[in-house]
C-alpha cells in the first residue's frame, strides 16, 4: 500500500490513477493542484513523506507558445517544491512522452521538463508514455481514439486526415506503471502496446459501434479489443441506455434475446432477489457486464468512481431491456417491487476467483475533488 501525491489529478491519466488506487484499496492520493504549485511551501507540505509523487499535469493542446511554456513552468514549480520539502518523497515519477525532444513545442517542452525535474531529483523516474487511450478520454484533446469514439457515439463518421501507425497503450496500464502497482489485476505495468494504423483503428471502432447499436456484443478476442470496446461504451453512457431487447411472442409464450456475442469468452448467470434487497455495490476495471431484468421491477444505479452524480434506471421485466455496466462505474441493482426479482447477468469473461476484477464500493458513497479545483 503506497501513499501517492499527484499533479494533474483531474485529467485523463490522473483520474485513472485515482481509480486504480481505489481498486487497490490504497489511500486516496494527495492532490497537488496548480494553485498549490504556485506556492512552493504549500506544494512541499502536501507531498512531504509520501511514497511516490506522480507529475502528470501538463499542457497537450493549444497555442504552441502556451504549450511549451506550460509544461516547463509546471515542472519548474514542482522542482522548487521538491527542494523545499522537509521530508522528501521516496520517489518522483514524471509522466513524460515518447515525443520528448522531437523538435515540436510540445516534445521539446517535455524534454526540458524532464531535465528540470531531474536537476531537483537525480533519481527521477522518467516514464516515456506513448499514445494513451481509455474510458472517458476527452475528444479532440486526449487522442484520436477518444475523438473517434465520441463521433461514432454521436452517430457521425470518423474523419481520416493523415494515416499513420500508432502504438496505443491503455491508460490503466500506464497508471499501473507510474504507480508501480503490484500484479494481480487486469492492469499490466509493462504497458503492452497495440500497433495499429489510424485507418484500421477507425474501421475497428466503427465495427464495434455498428454491432453495438443493435444491442449486440462485438468480437472481443483479446485485451485490447475489450479495452477499445469499453472506451467506446464510455462515450455512449448514459444517453444510449437502456437498450431494448428483441422479443418474439406466439401462442406458447415469449422469447427474449438477451445477449448476442460475436466472439470471445462469456459467462451467463441468473439470480433471484427478494423485495428491497440490493445486489452489486462494486465496480470493474475491464469486465463487460450486462444486466437484464426478466421478471419483477428494479432500479439500477451507477456512479462514476470518484464522482458524485448517480445515474438511475427504472426497469421492469414486463418490458425487458438491458443496461451494460460501464467500466469504472460502481453499480447496484435493487428490487423495488413486492415480488421476487429475476435477473439475467452476462459478462465477457469466465469468473476467476483469483482475478475477479470486482472492487467493492457503494454507489451511494464516494469522494470527489471539489468543483472548480484545477489539478
Automatic annotation (TrEMBL):
Highest taxon, organism lineage: Bacteria
Domain Capsular polysaccharide assembling protein CapF C-terminal: 248-359
Domain NAD-dependent epimerase/dehydratase: 6-175
One Pfam short name: Polysacc_synt_C
Protein name, per record: NAD-dependent epimerase/dehydratase family protein
Organism: Micromonospora mangrovi
Amino acid at each position: 500500500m503506497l501513499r501517492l501525491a499527484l499533479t494533474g489529478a483531474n485529467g485523463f491519466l490522473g483520474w485513472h490513477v485515482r481509480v486504480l488506487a481505489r481498486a487497490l484499496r490504497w489511500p486516496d492520493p494527495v492532490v497537488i493542484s496548480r494553485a498549490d504549485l504556485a506556492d512552493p511551501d504549500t506544494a512541499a507540505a502536501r507531498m512531504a513523506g509520501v511514497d511516490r509523487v506522480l507529475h502528470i499535469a501538463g499542457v497537450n493542446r493549444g497555442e504552441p507558445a502556451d504549450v511549451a511554456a506550460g509544461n516547463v513552468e509546471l515542472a519548474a514549480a514542482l522542482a522548487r517544491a521538491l527542494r523545499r520539502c522537509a521530508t522528501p518523497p521516496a520517489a518522483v515519477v514524471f509522466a513524460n512522452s515518447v515525443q520528448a525532444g522531437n523538435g515540436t513545442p510540445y516534445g521539446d517542452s517535455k524534454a526540458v521538463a524532464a531535465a528540470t525535474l531531474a536537476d531537483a531529483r537525480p533519481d527521477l523516474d522518467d516514464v516515456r508514455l506513448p499514445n494513451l487511450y481509455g474510458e472517458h478520454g476527452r475528444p479532440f484533446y486526449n487522442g484520436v481514439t477518444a475523438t473517434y469514439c465520441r463521433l461514432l457515439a454521436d452517430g457521425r463518421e470518423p474523419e481520416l486526415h493523415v494515416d499513420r501507425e500508432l502504438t496505443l497503450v491503455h491508460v490503466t496500464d500506464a497508471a499501473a506503471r507510474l504507480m508501480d502497482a503490484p500484479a494481480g489485476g487486469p492492469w499490466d505495468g509493462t504497458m503492452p502496446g497495440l500497433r495499429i494504423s489510424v485507418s484500421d483503428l477507425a474501421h475497428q471502432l466503427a465495427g464495434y459501434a455498428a454491432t453495438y447499436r443493435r444491442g449486440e456484443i462485438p468480437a472481443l478476442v483479446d485485451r485490447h479489443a475489450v479495452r477499445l470496446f469499453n472506451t467506446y461504451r464510455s462515450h455512449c453512457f448514459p444517453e444510449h441506455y437502456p437498450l431494448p431487447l428483441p422479443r418474439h411472442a406466439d401462442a406458447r409464450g415469449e422469447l427474449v434475446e438477451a445477449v448476442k456475442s460475436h466472439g470471445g469468452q462469456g459467462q451467463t448467470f441468473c439470480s433471484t432477489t427478494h423485495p428491497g434487497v440490493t445486489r452489486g455495490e462494486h465496480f470493474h476495471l475491464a469486465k463487460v457486464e450486462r444486466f437484464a431484468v426478466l421478471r419483477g421491477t428494479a432500479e439500477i444505479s451507477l456512479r462514476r468512481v470518484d464522482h458524485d452524480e448517480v445515474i438511475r434506471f427504472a426497469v421492469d421485466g414486463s418490458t425487458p431491456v438491458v443496461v451494460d455496466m460501464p467500466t469504472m462505474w460502481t453499480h447496484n441493482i435493487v428490487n423495488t417491487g413486492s415480488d421476487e426479482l429475476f435477473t439475467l447477468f452476462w459478462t465477457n469473461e469466465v469468473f476467476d476467483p483469483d482475478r475477479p476484477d470486482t472492487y467493492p464500493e457503494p454507489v451511494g458513497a464516494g469522494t470527489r475533488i471539489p468543483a472548480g479545483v484545477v489539478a
